[in-house]
TrEMBL record, chain A:
One protein family per Pfam: Rad9
InterPro entries: DNA_clamp_sf (IPR046938), Rad9 (IPR026584), Rad9/Ddc1 (IPR007268)
Residue ranges, annotated region (Disordered): 280-300, 385-449
PANTHER family according to UniProt: CELL CYCLE CHECKPOINT CONTROL PROTEIN, DNA REPAIR PROTEIN RAD9
GO biological process: cellular response to ionizing radiation; DNA repair; DNA replication checkpoint signaling; mitotic intra-S DNA damage checkpoint signaling
One GO cellular component term noted in the UniProt record for this chain: checkpoint clamp complex
Phylogenetic placement of the source organism: Eukaryota, Metazoa, Ecdysozoa, Arthropoda, Hexapoda
Ranges of Polar residues composition bias in the record: 424-449
Organism in which the protein naturally occurs: Drosophila albomicans
Gene3D superfamilies associated with the record: 3.70.10.10
UniProt similarity note: Belongs to the rad9 family.
Protein name in UniProt: Cell cycle checkpoint control protein
Signal peptide residue numbers: none
From TrEMBL, chain B:
A GO biological process held by the record: DNA damage checkpoint signaling
Protein name: Cell cycle checkpoint protein RAD1
Naturally occurring in which organism (per UniProt): Drosophila albomicans
Localization terms from the record: Nucleus
Chief location: nucleus
Keyword terms: DNA damage, DNA repair, Nucleus
Record carries keyword Phosphoprotein: no
Lineage, opening ranks: Eukaryota, Metazoa, Ecdysozoa, Arthropoda, Hexapoda
Sequence similarity: Belongs to the rad1 family.
GO CC field: checkpoint clamp complex
InterPro entries tied to this protein: Cell_cycle_checkpoint_Rad1, DNA_clamp_sf, Rad1_Rec1_Rad17
Amino acid sequence: MKCTLEGSNARVLAKAIQSLSKVGKELFIEADGQGLQMRTINATQSAVGSIRFSRAMFDTFQMPPSGDCYCKIAMKSCLGVFRNMKQVEHCELSVVNNSTKFQVKLRCKLETTKQALLSIVDEQNITSAVPTDQSVNCIRGDFKLFMEISNSFIASEEELTLEAKPDSLSAKNYIEGARVNDKFMRSQLKLKPSEFSHYQVAQEAVITFCIKEFRAFLLFAEALNAEMSIEFDDAGSPFLLKIKKHAEIECILILSTLSPDDVSFSEDYCQREIREADLPSVAQKRKSSTPGPTVQQKRRLAENTTVISDEDASVFQFREHRPPRPSEAPSVQPARLLADGDTVDVVEEEADEEALLLAVSEAAQASQAYPPNSTEVYFFETEEAPPTVLPPEKINDAEEEDESIPQSPEREQRHKLRTIFSRCFQNTYVPREPSPNSQVYAPNSDTED
Amino acid sequence: MLTQSQYDDYKFVCRLDHIKTFHAAIKSICFSDFGTLQASEEGLLITVEQGKSIQATIFISPSFFAEYHIQDSQSFSIKINVLAECLSLFGLADCGIKMLYKGEGSPLLILLEPHDDEQVSTECAIKTTNVEEPMEYELDSNSSSLNTIFMRGPDMSNIFHELDKAAEEYELTISPLKPHFKIATLGVMQAESSVEVAKSSDMIILFNCHATTVAQYKSQQIRLTNKALQVATKVAIKTDASGLLEMHFMMQSDAQEEMYVRFFITPLLDIS
């Protein structure tokens, strides 16, 4: 296989490789009669990116006698070759040495030639059985729009949620009803269908996907100055990102989306994302939050005290039945209130006793309502917890709870344990004479004995 | 030689109005602890060596200096990075410098005065030690295989900069036939790369090649020339069949005065 490209097309190829490098660690190159395709798959196999260059992009294009060519090369070695493309006037790609090496020759200004021989790892290729033309929802727009969406979220953001309705599109970094700690900044961007060149949402959907690969392809769309289209069905189905330029370059990124099974639904469409509760940080936050006069802070405090008992349970196990939470307008306030009665019950059923003790005792400390006592467990209703006044309309009905619970039973002195496992409490090595009843297989050969 | 009475005590005195080029040159040879300074009527030489495989020398002729007084030939050794640090005491501000040396055993005195602030100046005394004669490397100028290339500094810098830094060895080929000038990287898993420049290229000022020479060098040693390469306006590369690589970097001050830094790098022997 051998093909040549002229400078500016070679630069586009280099940009494609740079975008693909942000997705996967290996580059799959497939060449057939219609053109050259570069594909990659990410480590978790949740994203497949492919960029296809039609034959028209190349000055010359020679196929091997077998008609097609597949090779897999390490992404890192490719990146080095295509890093600095400013001076490149001509590029030649070929498979040499009996299909063991991929050769890149770059002819640059000032009569400089750069050449690289990259080892072909093997002849694997990726197949994805994902239908790419059957999505019910399709949104197309200039890359600038999607760039704006991407720039609205911080660089370290991991996932993006798109809520597509026939009359609006909102991009968020969270899922409705997700339980997150107070430090989490929720962002939302709402767009009108009129901003896009094509907006078709036949079926309402809320999809969540990894933003890293999305951004990688967005970068390529920017390099091409092209339109991007996103196609999807609903949560759990693949999310497709397509870029097309002049019928010469076609890119498609297939991302997997968060399945609805991973989040629980309730009637009013509340989704939940189970997160590993950041126990110490939440606890610290509560310690520092003093009973202040502001309403918002109090609400947060109230939420925390019951949330913590909820969250530590979730650390240990995933629970499917959550009490429905009131769904609020997403742009409003950061803290959410829980229906307290249910959460308290749940805690009693399943939480690990020790963790609970720890967590709630800290809650007790923060509230300053009762003197802290490490062995006492305090449950308190949200109305009573802080000494300052809470606006009554914000607090849900709470069950009557005991204000204090008697001291938990201490560990009994189990003397039996000691006698049963007595050997455990002795020195590790106790040289003993073998019993006279056992057979001596070989006499002691130590000359000193 | 020394005419002013105040210089009677000093065997070597020199003054520069702008230390920028001098400072850049000193920084470019800071790869070893000690450097040897040899001052004579022909000029000032500062030599740094590492092992027996790489040597760098700065040549500054007396005309480069605003003042240059020398009594006999002086040579001594100082810690070169200390000298570089003294020169950077005022950061990037341009300073005037005066160097004084009383004689054997006495420290090298450096007086720095920044131009932007007349009220401040600094005096440094760097301890000197007895000199160890630096190795004499020489390329036989009459050798039949002596190859010389003069190249534009920035272009050469770009080429070297783009070489794969993970490579352990660089192989340099100079030939009257194609490839005329080629640097290949060796030792990188899964990727071998090379850069070739044709002799007709604009970046080559002079190409004088008699016979093909191929030699390998440790990439880490070639990279020690990076700092000099970045500030050089012209680079001369000379080598012969022995493989000894001589690189001259010409550095120009704003006043178009020149100083040279010369590197000698020994090749890696091919044990095969």
